[in-house]
Amino acid sequence: MIDDDKAAGDAGGSTHHLAPLQLELPFAAERRRPYRVLIDDLFHFGNIERMEEERYEFGAFDTPAEALAACEFVVNRCLQWLYVQKPGISAGELLEHYLGFGDDPFVRADRDHERVDFSARDYAETRVKIIAGQASELQSQVLDLDEAVVRIAGRLRAPRA
C-alpha cells in the first residue's frame, strides 16, 4: 500500500513519484496474420444462416502449416471429447457422432495469400480409427490388469498350508 502523503512529497522532504502506468500491448500493434481458422458447428450443417451465426474464430496464424495444425488440433480435441462421452464406441459410431455434433474447422486466407484446403471430415475419418483403436487396446490392457489384480488378490486371500 502506498502512503498518499509520502507519494505527494508532504512527509520527510523526499518526493516519491509513481511512474506513469505504461502498458505495451503487443497485440495492439501486431500485424494481421493472414490465415484464420474458423469453426462451424456440424450440428447446424445444412442451415447456412445458422452456421454463420454460430461460427467463431479459433485463431490467426502466420503460415498455412500452423493453420492446418490448428485445424487438426480442433478435430482431435473434439473426437476425444466425443469418445469420452461414449467410451467403447466403434470408429464408425464415433465418426457418426462427430458428423452430427462436432466442430468443423476451416482456414480462411487473406486475399493475397495462398488458399489452404482442409477437410475436417476426411481428417476425422482417419483419426476415429486411431482413437477407437487405441481406446480398445487400452481397454484390453486394463482388463488384463484387472484379471492380474484379481489373481494376485486371490492368492493373497488363500489360506497358506
Give a description of the structure:
- The protein is 52% helix and 12% strand.
- The chain is an alpha+beta fold.
- The protein has one domain.
- It has a three-stranded antiparallel beta sheet with strand order 2-1-3, with helices on both faces.
- The longest helix is centred in the last third of the chain and has 38 residues, at 120-157.
- Mean pLDDT is 74; it is low at 1-25.
Question: Could you outline the blueprint of secondary structure elements for this entry?
Answer:
Layout: H1 4-8, E1 35-41, H2 48-54, E2 56-61, H3 64-85, H4 91-101, E3 103-109, H5 120-157
Antiparallel strand pairs: 1-2, 1-3
Give the biggest beta sheet. Answer: 3 strands, antiparallel
Helix content: 40-55%
List the total number of helices: 5
How many independent structural domains? 1
Which structural class is indicated by helix and strand composition? alpha+beta
Tell me what portion of residues adopts beta-strand conformation. 5-15%
Please report the total strand number as a whole number.
Answer: 3
Rg calculated over all Cα atoms: 28 Å
Q: Report the mean per-residue pLDDT as an integer.
A: 74
Strand order of the largest sheet: 2-1-3
Keywords:
single chain; 3-stranded antiparallel β-sheet; disordered N terminus; alpha+beta; 161 residues; elongated; 3 strands; 52% helix
Summary, kept brief:
The chain has 161 residues and is of the alpha+beta class.
